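Here is the promised in-class demo. Please do not try to memorize the tokens; focus on the logic of going from shape to residues.
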């Protein structure tokens, strides 16, 4: 009988003890912790960042029993135990005022004080965090491990220009909170920060100038997501069932999974990876669908695209960018960075230049993302309601697959007829119609 799919399960302990499939990334985890102290990783949502941190938490907690049969069991011989401080900023509403963030940070600090029986503090957050780290180090005699999940959630939640003041407050609060980490270097064994976006180091992590960003490091390009080889190795029984459910061959099932969900690349020499969430939803439900983006495209991204008058015809492999433009996300100046960091664009090709930094050709990773993009943007360029978009998108896809030019043209004409004229500038109107055709 096939192992269970870990759909929605983000705890390493539960996956291992609950009989779920675990795609073994522990060789990369071992390499990561042996070669680094302060690490930052940016990946789109639904790519397993929380599970990665949970795996690190189990490793640094000395849970050797959980790693039986995995690569880590052979690679690690010491299995030292360290105190682990895990901070998850993914939950919570940070859109009203900065107190939502300060309350969250305060709650974690109080919990750590109780867990390690420390003297309560009423210092400023940054000093307080440093004090907690130092006291735990002195009390246990062990260096501390810090794991921060979705560090940028309070910033992403307030990225619109109208919320610039609130985002500044959030940024300053986080900067002060993390600022003392560097001064506690002797007390820290390892620290990792994950998120969707990399706001420039001069803002949140300016004091952590020894932070290693592995987001585009080819050695860790497959740390999150699954490769073609891993799909075959761990999920073959489920893919066989999927093929039978859809009355197709296994080869056809694999080819459809590849076309729909593969194609994400995170380095100039990186291996392409699948979005594991979409793969598992497909295998679980027995139906190929658009699952990754069902939680919605961030509203700020839609606004940036519209306000920036972005030419959407360039998005499929026609955008060339450098690393700074792709990865440094500051306000509404740069639309390419949030498109790349949220997963709507990925690296299609690296352009290597002797003695110069490489350039990257960006494009949609796969069919699911392309369809997600169209579904969310069509209401923005037309009078169509969101519930009308999916049937039209499916009609276009079916007509294209069947080679039915008449049906395709009829559907596209129907969409164009719903395009309102909202500008007196002919260039804007032309761009809007061009964008509408591009996403239809």
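The designed amino acids, position by position:
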């Amino acid at each position: 009988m096939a192992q269970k799919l870990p759909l929605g399960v983000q705890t390493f302990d539960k996956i291992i003890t609950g009989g779920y499939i675990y795609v073994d990334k522990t060789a990369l985890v071992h390499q990561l912790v042996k070669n680094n102290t302060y690490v930052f990783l940016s990946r789109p949502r639904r790519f397993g960042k929380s599970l990665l941190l949970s795996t690190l938490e189990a490793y640094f907690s000395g849970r050797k029993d959980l790693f039986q049969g995995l690569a880590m069991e052979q690679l690690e011989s010491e299995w030292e135990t360290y105190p682990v401080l895990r901070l998850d900023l993914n939950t919570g509403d940070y859109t009203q005022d900065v107190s939502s963030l300060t309350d969250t940070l305060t709650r974690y600090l109080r919990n750590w004080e109780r867990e390690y029986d420390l003297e309560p503090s009423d210092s400023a957050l940054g000093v307080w965090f440093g004090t907690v780290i130092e006291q735990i180090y002195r009390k246990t005699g062990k260096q501390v491990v810090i794991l921060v999940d979705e560090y940028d959630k309070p910033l992403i939640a307030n990225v619109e220009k109208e919320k610039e003041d609130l985002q500044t407050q959030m940024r300053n609060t986080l900067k002060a909170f993390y600022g003392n980490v560097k001064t506690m270097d002797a007390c820290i064994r390892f620290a990792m920060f994950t998120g969707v976006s990399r706001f420039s180091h001069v803002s949140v992590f300016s004091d952590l100038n020894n932070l290693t960003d592995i987001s585009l490091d080819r050695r860790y390009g497959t740390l999150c997501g699954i490769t073609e080889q891993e799909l075959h190795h761990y999920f073959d029984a489920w893919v066989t069932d999927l093929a039978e459910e859809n009355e197709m061959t296994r080869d056809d099932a694999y080819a459809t999974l590849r076309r729909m969900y593969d194609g994400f690349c995170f380095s100039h020499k990186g291996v392409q990876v699948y979005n594991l969430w979409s793969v598992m939803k497909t295998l679980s439900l027995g139906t190929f669908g658009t699952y990754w983006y069902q939680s919605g495209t961030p509203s700020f991204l839609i606004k940036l695209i519209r306000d920036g008058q972005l030419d959407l015809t360039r998005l499929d492999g026609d955008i060339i960018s450098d690393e700074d433009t792709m990865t440094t996300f500051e306000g509404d100046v740069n639309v390419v960075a949030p498109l790349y960091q949220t997963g709507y664009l990925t690296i299609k090709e690296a352009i290597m230049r002797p003695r110069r930094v490489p350039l990257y050709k960006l494009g949609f990773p796969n069919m699911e993302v392309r369809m997600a993009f169209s579904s969310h943007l069509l209401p923005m360029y037309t009078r169509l309601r969101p519930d009308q978009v999916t049937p039209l998108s499916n009609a276009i896809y079916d007509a294209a697959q069947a080679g039915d030019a008449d049906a395709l043209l009829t559907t596209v004409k129907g969409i164009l007829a719903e395009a309102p004229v909202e500008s007196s500038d002919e260039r804007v109107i032309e761009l809007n119609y061009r964008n509408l055709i591009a996403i239809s």
